[in-house]
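Supplementary Note 3. Input sequence used for the single-chain structure prediction.
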Amino acid sequence: MNLHQVLTGVVNPGDNCFSVGSINNQPFTAYASGCDIVILGSDFERLQIIPGAKHGNIQVGCLDCSLQGGQFSSSICTWCSTAAAGRTPRRILVLPHA
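The predicted structure, written as discrete structure tokens, is reproduced below.
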């Protein structure tokens, strides 16, 4: 493997690139993978990937989830999750980045 190669699905380096949240008493895990955000269910089944290509392909360096309501924030955007299957979370705030 060359240094420039990327393993897809791997969590970004750092202590703040993953977090656990909850929506309707159902836990989920969100983690940053490159410029994408991956959401896993309580059994670690992949539920959704939010592609970073829509936000300038900026590597996500920080991610945090709420234990109430299903919201999560990254170093790029704040998202409001929905419990309905198949619906995409909507972006509610874009944070400035360097």
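Residues 17 and 62 are 5 Å apart (CA to CA). The two ends are 31 Å apart (CA to CA).
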